[in-house]
Amino acid sequence: MGKPGGGRAEISPRMLSKFHVINYINPSEQNLKRIFETLATTKFHSFPEEIKALCDPLAVATIQLFNSVSEQFLPTPAKSHYVFNMRDISKVF
What we know:
Layout: H1 13-16, H2 29-43, H3 49-52, H4 55-72, H5 86-92
């Protein structure tokens, strides 16, 4: 659930009182890099050294692509499917 706007409606306090609201902050770029670099390193542990060396650039490039897509493709009422999260980064890995 995101903030109201861009195709998202505000949920009434009466409705919210029926649920537990859990909030988390998005991880920093440094944390994202560490998460996905670790995933790539684990996946490529049996590959040659020149492939293993690409784990760091792969994580950095994927995060940069995610950030630029998130900034350029903003959700609107006509295109409410333009909502991006960490699941989209994980699909690369």
